[in-house]
Amino acid sequence: MTTLFALISIALYLMAMFVLVGRLFHKNGPNKTFALSLAALGSLTHLLYLAEAIMGVPGQNMSITNVLSLVAWLITVSMLISITVLPNVMLLPGVLGFAALSVAAVLFIPAEHIMHIELQPGLLVHISLSLFAYGTLVIAFLYALQMSYITHRLKQKEATFIHSSMPPLMLVEGILFKLLLVGTCLLIVAQITGFIFLENMFSKLYAHKTVLSLAATAIYILLLVGQKIWGWRGKQVIGLTVLGLALLSLAYFGSRLVREILL
Fold it and tell me: Which of 2, 21, 42, 83 is the 20 to 30 Å CA partner of 34?
């Protein structure tokens, strides 16, 4: 049954993605109601599959593939919930495609990292905050890509195309900085809880993760300060957003990818 949930989830995500992509640039736009219904059902079956994949063992299997798929689920649900107030239709196909790939990764790439989070409430707080921070900053990265694309089209003097199929640049930019602020605050609090509840943040096994995540936090803080004080926009913002997420991804997944998948 769990494998069936995974296959159904992948199929629904891909169907929703193709419904959106097929008429993304049509003057009437895609059939959002149908696509979002498919995506919502996909996220439900995705959750059912993840529940078994993570909780179906003694303890919790927080393998790299399970965590990545959980992050993909959080991002997908956040985007679906926010679609009524945020301009994210252009971003949804990529999000849904990533979610489908993450389910396939759990299904076809076996990995195991057993934890007993129920015995360490502080660890649960730290992991939850870290996941929400990462998910928020990934969404910010997507909006940075959208902002870059809109800026490029405007420079090419294709304003008619922009206004007919994309949100205004200033709206996307405003959402981007709000997401960066929220994600950075969550990341800082997650790191504080790590230092409070964990005793091995600078041990040989986790030192690189701590250093990289602190470096990513410094990048995001610099970005927000630069925007507030010096009015940074455009390339500086996009470049630092990409760099911050790259460092954070290496911190969260780099060594685990080697240990759990490659070795």
Answer: 2
Query: Could you list the mean pLDDT of each consecutive 10-residue stretch along the chain, which spans 263 residues?
Result: 89 94 66 91 96 83 90 95 82 94 90 75 87 95 90 67 64 93 96 85 76 94 93 87 93 68 51
Among 141, 11, 132, CA closest to 70: 132
Cα angle 111, 112, 114 (rounded to 5 degrees) comes to 165
Beta bridge partners of 61: 114
Q: Contact at 8 Å (CB) between 62 and 81? A: no
